[in-house]
Amino acid sequence: MTCKESKQRILRFDQLPEHEQNHLFEHIERCEECQTYFEQYLTLEEGLDLLLQEKDIHVHSIKRRSSQRIFKRALLTCASFFLLIIGAWNTPPVKAAIEKAINEVIIDHFLKGQQQLENKGESAREKIIYAEQKLQNKEIVFVYLSGQKVRNEYGNGNYSISDGKYLATYSKKDNLFVIKKLVYKGVPYEVEIFRNIDPSSITYKGEREYLDRQAEVYLVEESQEVQREYWFDKDTSLFIKEVEIYKGHRQDQDNLNEFKIIEVKKNHRLFDFIAPDGARIIDESIQ
Fold this sequence. Notes:
Elements: H1 3-10, H2 18-30, H3 32-54, H4 64-85, H5 92-100, H6 102-112, E1 125-134, E2 140-146, E3 149-154, E4 159-162, E5 166-171, E6 176-181, H7 189-195, E7 202-210, E8 213-221, E9 226-233, E10 239-246, E11 249-253, E12 256-265, E13 280-283
Parallel strand pairs: 6-13
Antiparallel strand pairs: 1-2, 1-12, 2-3, 3-4, 4-5, 5-6, 7-8, 8-9, 9-10, 10-11
Helix pairs in contact: 1-2, 1-3, 2-3, 3-4, 3-5, 4-6, 6-7
């Protein structure tokens, strides 16, 4: 095994089968350069693991294992600034440790996007998200969002309300209000998608301005011909834009006309399952 091959294996050490790890150790024992390289990698990994064990952090996530990865990602991010200061940013083991965590950065965006906005104090008003979304048929949908609660209002008077577990739809033409139970998974499906993407195919592209707000952009290399950008609102972590890049040509999936945080009275009832007066109600959730 050459030093180049050894270093490549070190960068994905925890993914190697046991016999390959043993073979790697045989080389490391004989090579001082690779010993140093491996020790640099382990120092950062072990240091962050120790910090995780010592910190008493409350986590809202799917599993404890996932939560640890998310907070390890956060610590890796903090560590990256420190390493930049001491000039170690370009050390390959450090870069690999940061790269390994980028999946969890994106996953954390999707999880945070399901949380309600923070409302400080005892104010009689509540912060929610307001957006105007353009459909393929050019119709505009007015969206109100708070955590997993969503209200969509259409120009023809129809609307829908969901709390993540149930969905209510109102048809003005039929004057019909229907309630259904959703197949509740608890987390966005994108979480599992990104959990299975090779971290080396993801690149953080920095911040961009979008709808007068700052967005964090990540580029995923899907194949030699196809790349895809995922844009997340910096303040709310909500997924707000997608760009497909096919053979170098960009195609924006840009369907938002407006996206902002507004304040409404706490008794707004925007997300209550209340049918209009005189509407026929069909509750399929109890069937």
